């Protein structure tokens, strides 16, 4: 990069520290006391918004298929009506003051839900202390919620392992840390793949496609990282769902869309065979209506390692795009203004 990027909150450093963040979060989660008995839990509910809520999507996609109880993620004010004293409720709020999460967790706690909070403090921590609910803290050196995916997601996995609901969680987290360190060592070099992709995306609107549940989480993560870090519009969708609707939307205006959009396919080793086939079939069609198609392929041992590998690549790409445009990726004034307006 020709000039030192503007980065007042240290977002590049936080992205590079992602694997160590997970290691610290695992250690913290092992220390928490007051957890319910796993045999008394028949459902898991995750409450969270934005950078905190994505941890729930990750948990549901990676751990959910291997758990004996269902995992539901709610991003809003109202928890499901079935919540009772057999529901483990993870309240995820980086600041501890997320309006929607505070409303939802209070309703869930009043219904008997067994609350475990992952937060830095705020009103959520105060309420949990009054309820006698366990609180898992978040390290002070993480600058923004979106930079704390490891600190938010890893504790839930360790708690579930401790309750006997997600066997092998710590082992999969170790595989993820190993892969993230290997990826990080490449992404901190000059001219790295994320920096080159950011250059290719300049002045284009990225559309991100992912395959299956893992691809859906990664694609949405890329989208929101572009939105917040580089202030860029971006769109995401998932195969096979988009094959039943969005693909038809490319039927006209190719002369316009080729000038505006670039497509990024996020690929991983856990795609259903028909999902793989759909990527192959669609790319020649889409090549006619977007400016360029890029592919980013995950590496690592296990589904958790691969989805986090994709996420790290997306974070660095968005940060390099911000640097390229002279944008400070840390503060997001419009979000602060919106919260202030709602508070008034």
What's the order of the H and E elements?
HHEHEEHEHEHHHEHEHEHEHH
Briefly note the structural class of the backbone.
alpha/beta
Question: Average pLDDT across residues?
Answer: 97
Query: What is the helix fraction of residues, given as a range?
Result: 40-55%
Largest sheet: 5 strands, parallel
Q: Which shape, going by the Cα principal axes?
A: globular
Strand order of the largest sheet: 2-1-3-4-5
Q: Give a count of the beta strands, DSSP E runs of length 2 or more.
A: 9
> How many domains, as an integer?
2
CATH class of the largest domain: Alpha Beta
Radius of gyration, CA atoms, in whole angstroms: 20 Å
CATH level 3 topology of the largest domain: Rossmann fold
Name the beta content range.
5-15%
Name the CATH superfamily classification of the largest domain: Glucose-6-phosphate isomerase like protein, domain 1
Question: What features would you describe in this structure?
Answer:
- The protein has 344 residues and is an alpha/beta fold.
- It has two domains: 136 residues, Rossmann fold (3-Layer(aba) Sandwich); 138 residues, Rossmann fold, CATH 3.40.50.
- Helices cover 49% and strands 14% of the residues.
- The chain has 13 helices and nine strands.
- The protein has a five-stranded parallel β-sheet with strand order 2-1-3-4-5, with helices on both faces. Strands 7-6-8-9 form a four-stranded parallel β-sheet.
- Helix 9 packs parallel to helix 12.
- It is globular and about 60 Å long.
- 46% of the residues are buried.
- The mean pLDDT is 97.
